[in-house]
């Protein structure tokens, strides 16, 4: 995903701006592409970017447990023995907002 795309996207829940955070990227300047990362909204929701594709889905973290396991530290989760535990924590945090 190219970072400028985030400027054209909005949160489907609050219609707020989404800010892109790259965990893994290639290229520089106009050629920069985010391969893995998240789109974050000020309402507290976030959506993973996996293989360069933003996954703007309500249960995205539950659908992509391998992503959660790989990036638990970036997502504010402690390392857990299973991705399901991390996903459960993340979903509870989302439900509170």
Beta-strand residue fraction:
25-35%
Lateral strand order in the biggest sheet: 1-2-3-4
Radius of gyration: 13 Å
Number of helical runs? 4
**Helical residue percent?**
25-40%
Major sheet summary line: 4 strands, antiparallel
Low-confidence sequence ranges:
none
Describe the structure.
The chain contains 4 helices and 4 strands, in the order αββββααα. With 97 residues, it is an alpha+beta fold. Strands 1-2-3-4 form a 4-stranded antiparallel β-sheet, with no helix packed on it. Strand 1 (18-26) and strand 2 (33-41) form a beta hairpin. The longest helix is centred in the last third of the chain and has 14 residues, at 83-96.
Q: How is the topology of this model organized?
A:
Layout: H1 3-6, E1 18-26, E2 33-41, E3 46-50, E4 53-54, H2 60-63, H3 65-70, H4 83-96
Antiparallel strand pairs: 1-2, 2-3, 3-4
In a few lines, what is going on in this structure?
The protein is an alpha+beta fold and 97 residues long. The chain has helices spanning 3-6, 60-63, 65-70, 83-96; strands spanning 18-26, 33-41, 46-50, 53-54.
Which characteristics define this entry?
97 residues; four-stranded antiparallel β-sheet; 4 helices
